């Protein structure tokens, strides 16, 4: 049976999650993730005999972080540094809330975030993009849909979650633009290429339904009893589709929707777009996030090196 102390901590966590949902208007996905991370923290606190709020000390947090670092990822390894970081971010946010609401709590800044693992930036070159875009079989409804999806992803740099949330009535094909609410509930305007608009129109020509989603499944049950959300494509289905086409045309990269997002940003920067504009189009909160692209896209650097470092030889 839960004690009063455990119930108190659970109550504060629940209060914090409600605050995120109502006052901060964060996405349901973020609330779900924070619920998972903070439940894990609450369970660990209780199992280790420190269920009282005042027992959230630097030493206990350190022990908890050690526990998280050793947790299995279910695939024979341990949780990635990125996932460990999410746990720490959730805990810091909870502590900030406690202090903001005049509770006695550990200072959030005393919790350091783990250093992120370095990853090489994957993107497709122009020839690979063309091969991927031309890979669907256009004699089928699914092929026309998939071509439209690939064109939209490369044309806009949308996240896959943003793509599947699109509805037919929210896109202005005449103006080739639409608004989107992305990560962190940030709003931005997204622009479509002429080619992406053409393929969306080709796809919509074959649609004989009244469902709202711009991109929907074409197998399974349909009818008035089937809701819009039941026919809407899922992020996972788009991920599988892209991998299938990448294998078909033998692209030697693990292609995901995010790789197409990277390719969109890389293509813009290599063509001379400024970093701030690309930041806006990607919906990044900070330009520092967008700067991950600069080390692979600043083509001027090689020209400078060749021009001024002649002593290095050819």
UniProtKB/TrEMBL annotation:
PROSITE patterns: CB, TYR_RECOMBINASE. Keywords: Cell cycle, Cell division, Chromosome partition, Cytoplasm, DNA integration, DNA recombination, DNA-binding. It comes from the Bacteria. Residues 119-306 form the Tyr recombinase domain. InterPro entries: CB (IPR044068), DNA_brk_join_enz (IPR011010), Integrase-like_cat_sf (IPR013762), Integrase_catalytic (IPR002104), Integrase_recombinase_N (IPR010998), Integrase_SAM-like_N (IPR004107), Tyrosine_recombinase_XerCD (IPR050090). Pfam families: Phage_int_SAM_1, Phage_integrase. Its main location: cytoplasm. GO terms for molecular function: DNA binding. Residues 7-99 form the Core-binding (CB) domain. It is found in: Cytoplasm. GO terms for cellular component: cytoplasm. One of its GO terms (biological process) is cell division. PANTHER family: PHAGE INTEGRASE-RELATED, TYROSINE RECOMBINASE XERC. NCBIfam families: recomb_XerA_Arch. This is Tyrosine recombinase XerC. The lineage of its organism: Bacteria, Candidatus Blackburniibacteriota.
